[in-house]
Amino acid sequence: AGEPLTSGIRCCAALRSCFPILTWLPGYNLTWLKMDLIAGLTVGLTAVPQALAYAEVAGLPVQYGLYSAFMGGFIYCIFGTSKDITLGPTAIMSLLCSAYIGGDPVFAVVLTLLCGIIQAGMALLRLGFLLDFISHPVIKGFTCAAAVTIGFGQVKNILGLKEIPQQFYLQVYYTFHKIPEARVGDVILGLCCLFFLVMLTLMKNSLGSSEHEASLLVRSARRLVWSLATMRNALVVIAATGVAYSAEVTGHHFFSLTGKTAEGLPPFKVPPLSETVANGTVITFSDIAKDLGGGLAVIPLMGVLESIAIAKAFSSKNNYRIDANQELFAIGLTNILGSFVSAYPVTGSFGRASESLCFWAGVIVLLSLAFLMPLFFYIPKASLAAVIICAVSPMMDFRVPVQLWRVKRLDLLPFLVTFVVSFWEVQYGIVGGVVVSGFMLLHIVARPKVKVSDHGVLLLELDSGLNFPVTEHLSRLVYKHALQVSPRRCLVLDCAHVSSIDFTVVHELTELLKQFELRGVSMIFAGLKVEFNINRHV
């Protein structure tokens, strides 16, 4: 009787591991439902204008931002393990995608499908550890550079400028060069939107700093203001759209508008695996995959990294654990299914509520697609630019270099390489930072600290594992301090802190033992762990 019971418990645990929704859904109640409906409305009203704005960053028509914003809500509430994030388009993911898809929706959808397959495959093969090789300085260097790139990239929309190149340095030059062509209406509206967004953000932060009020009326007023400040993106975009619509219907074209968008829900269909361009040329799936190139490595990894970094930060703060491989699977599955509704790649972003909130936020996005798309024609680009600038400004954390300088100055190198190169091409910045971090890691492995003491007998104290890159360095030290001096020294090799030894090292130690025997001196291993059993090999 005990064995079937144990098997049943294991089966339930396995199901909960695969479907985290089973851990919280049985205890879900009506009170939580009411709270999540309100929170979902708030997050949905924030997500809709942000999704429209992020599509602009990705170089796609604005409706693709909404196509990408709802699938994650439905999938993540079933498979996700963090209650504080939602899956959808983000500023960084949009910037990365823009570098590979060239504004082509077909390329974006194929990229989404392939990213999802790669991420889900990594989850099934338990390859989440690969993310550990992207160091914190590289991440911070990339996010700071991405924030500057994305933020400055929206200045052209605040100014109402057209025909500005995408490459950052050319963008800076032509933006300043074309300032005399700025449209007054866009400038005034954009600056007003920025002003109100900043003021509402400051109001929300100040309200959150005090939780005790004597008056019930004051507490209610504070909650109302806090809710309005939370929905600031939607409020500002709605107000700006009303102003632009009023101007348009009276025959005044003061503002650069989003323009015509596809109406209604996206059809659920198999992702297009080829494309026929205007001149009749067919671009095959293999051609698209070749053009995407390094994006098939950079975007899946960075998408997962961004999501897991946010999830880990909140899980630590709110005292719960996440499963990195399960998160990887949830993101991968979201991207695979998202490609069937013409989404571009998504990743985790801040949600700050329970798991079911993702579902209700997704519903709000679907309702927007179903009923509000004709109104999006009148959304001024300057208002979306203001939303993006305010969204990415917290990513510009320039305290990081000071912290790196205080902790370990050498870590500034991958940070600066990533930061500077990302202004040329964001993907090269990430690769450059990872390569520099990798070389720094290899140097530590190849040149571990060795304490040399000579008291008539030479003592070498090793502080880490002995792996093949260290063999030449160790041999030089032994010859220099023991075999090439007069008189020759016996050697004690202190291996108390050595946790690993490979075959190349064993072979080199065998050769050193022969040299010691030929010169009539001894080489002794001290503190060696039994499992290495070097003596049996040498």
Task: Characterize the structure shown.
By secondary structure, this protein is mainly α. β2 (275-276) and β3 form a beta hairpin. The protein is built from 24 helices and eight strands. The chain folds into three domains: 30-396, no CATH class; 400-446; 450-526, STAS domain (Transcription Regulator spoIIAA). The chain has helices at 2-18, 21-24, 30-58, 63-67, 71-79, 91-101, 105-124, 136-153, 155-159, 168-177, 184-208, 216-230, 232-249, 285-292, 295-317, 324-338, 355-371, 381-392, 400-407, 412-422, 426-446, 471-483, 503-518, 534-537; strands spanning 85-88, 275-276, 282-283, 347-350, 450-454, 458-462, 491-494, 523-526. α20 packs antiparallel against α21. The protein is elongated.
What's the arrangement of secondary structure elements?
Layout: H1 2-18, H2 21-24, H3 30-58, H4 63-67, H5 71-79, E1 85-88, H6 91-101, H7 105-124, H8 136-153, H9 155-159, H10 168-177, H11 184-208, H12 216-230, H13 232-249, E2 275-276, E3 282-283, H14 285-292, H15 295-317, H16 324-338, E4 347-350, H17 355-371, H18 381-392, H19 400-407, H20 412-422, H21 426-446, E5 450-454, E6 458-462, H22 471-483, E7 491-494, H23 503-518, E8 523-526, H24 534-537
Parallel strand pairs: 6-7, 7-8
Antiparallel strand pairs: 1-4, 2-3, 5-6
Helix pairs in contact: 3-6, 3-13, 3-17, 3-18, 5-16, 5-17, 6-15, 7-15, 7-16, 8-18, 8-20, 8-21, 11-12, 11-13, 11-18, 15-16, 20-21, 22-23
